[in-house]
């Protein structure tokens, strides 16, 4: 695929460690992980993959893999520790050095400004359900952009606001661990508003947002309405405000918190849309309603179709990626797309043939989508390194590179070498 960008992705809390060094303050994930029972095995991101001290070695690994770009996130509590717009110079300098070293190796830096690590002080003030958090994010975004815009072209404001809102404030499965469905809906809107406010302060750069989207299908004709509602709360609740300037009319929630002018701010033109895809969904209705991340869909459940699954339990179906990309082409035309995360958790330490098969099938879906006219410009594998996998702790490994957490030794997996060869062949 000509002029196609090949990269790999990580996020700050999942790999950096050094959570109390050089002026970094606690984030909601530090607080959440420290609470017993929140994270499997009691794991925390205190050390993670040690990237804060091993970033030079990790860039050498990126060079070995032939990456054209590296998608990483900037830790808000490392740069602006208390969310007050006050710069922590040591924290910002870390990302200055990282960007310079990437460019020296011919690797394009793709920073994400928010990958879930809200400063704890802002959560203490109410977190994302509070409108002021969006303004604080815009101040922080301007700090980082002003420091790096002379060297960075592509910027992502938010990673997966669905998770931040509905897992963080709805189900409580993610930090900050609140179970308040109405607050989760407000959080989703304020995350979108944060994106728009930040984008307005990042002129001269190519600015996008990354959404975790999926292909939602009904189990049968009687489940079409159920699939529509889940699609609304997973996909269209973000896609429509960003790309059409309004929320879907059929969302099963109250949007009374939306103020005049918000949607105009949110719908400022995107330079690209990042798509994170892992697994599709097939749904049906149930007679036993239960709490769910999909507010207003308590009577809908996901169906097990008996397909192979990754070690984290996610169904493997590359056709869902192709169908999703075709849907974006048809329903939201005119926006460049990038796969900003795609990968799988498997237990094999180094000889990870299951991961190779997963990536092979999903890259075939990518090629099919491009051949069908989808404006897909690049692909980032998730993830470069084994890392702290949020509430799953360290048991789930997504990396192209194995990390021995006791020694922090890195070993390129078979999938990493396979991906290197794919890049050399330009995706063939």
Automatic annotation (TrEMBL):
Q: Which GO terms describe its molecular function?
A: beta-galactosidase activity
Provide the reaction this enzyme catalyses. Answer: Hydrolysis of terminal, non-reducing beta-D-glucosyl residues with release of beta-D-glucose
Q: Which UniProt keywords apply?
A: Carbohydrate metabolism, Cellulose degradation, Glycosidase, Hydrolase, Polysaccharide degradation
Q: What is its EC number?
A: 3.2.1.21
List the protein's name.
Beta-glucosidase
Active-site residues? 341 (nucleophile)
Family membership:
Belongs to the glycosyl hydrolase 1 family.
One family from Pfam that matches here is Glyco_hydro_1
């Amino acid at each position: 695929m000509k002029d196609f960008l090949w990269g790999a992705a990580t996020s700050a809390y999942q790999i950096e460690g050094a959570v109390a060094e050089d002026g970094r303050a606690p984030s909601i994930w530090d607080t959440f992980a420290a609470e017993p029972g929140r994270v499997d095995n009691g794991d925390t991101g205190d050390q993670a993959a040690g990237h804060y001290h091993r970033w030079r070695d990790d860039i050498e690994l990126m060079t070995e893999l032939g990456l054209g770009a590296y998608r990483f996130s900037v830790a808000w509590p490392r740069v602006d520790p208390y969310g007050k717009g006050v710069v922590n110079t040591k924290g910002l300098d870390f990302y200055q050095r990282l960007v310079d070293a990437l460019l020296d190796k011919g690797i394009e830096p793709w920073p994400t400004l928010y990958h879930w690590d809200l400063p704890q002080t802002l959560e203490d003030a109410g977190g994302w359900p509070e409108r002021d958090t969006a303004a604080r994010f815009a101040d922080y975004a301007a700090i980082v952009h002003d420091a790096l815009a002379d060297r960075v072209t592509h910027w992502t404001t938010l990673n997966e606001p669905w998770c931040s809102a509905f897992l963080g404030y709805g189900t409580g499965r993610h930090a900050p661990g609140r179970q308040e469905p109405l607050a989760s809906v407000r959080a989703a809107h304020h995350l979108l508003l944060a994106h728009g406010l930040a984008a307005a302060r990042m002129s001269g750069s190519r600015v996008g947002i990354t959404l975790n989207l999926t292909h939602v299908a009904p189990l049968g004709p009687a489940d079409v309405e159920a699939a529509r509602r889940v699609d609304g709360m997973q996909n269209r609740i973000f896609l429509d405000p960003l790309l059409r300037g309004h929320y879907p009319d059929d969302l099963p929630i109250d949007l009374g918190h939306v103020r005049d002018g918000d949607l105009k701010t949110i719908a400022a033109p995107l330079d690209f849309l990042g798509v994170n895809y892992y697994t599709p969904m097939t749904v049906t209705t149930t007679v036993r309603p239960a709490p769910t991340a999909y507010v207003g869909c308590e009577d809908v459940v996901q169906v097990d179709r008996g397909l192979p699954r990754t070690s984290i339990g996610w169904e493997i179906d590359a056709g869902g990626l192709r169908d999703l990309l075709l849907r974006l082409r048809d329903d939201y035309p005119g926006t460049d797309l990038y796969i900003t995360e795609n990968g799988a958790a498997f237990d094999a330490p180094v000889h990870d043939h299951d991961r190779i098969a997963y990536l092979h099938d999903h890259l075939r879906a990518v090629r099919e989508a491009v051949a069908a006219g989808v404006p897909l410009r690049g692909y980032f594998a998730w993830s470069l390194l084994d890392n702290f996998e949020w509430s799953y702790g360290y048991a789930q490994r997504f990396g192209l590179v194995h990390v021995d957490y006791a020694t922090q030794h890195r070993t390129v997996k078979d999938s990493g070498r396979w991906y290197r060869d794919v890049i050399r062949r330009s995706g063939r």
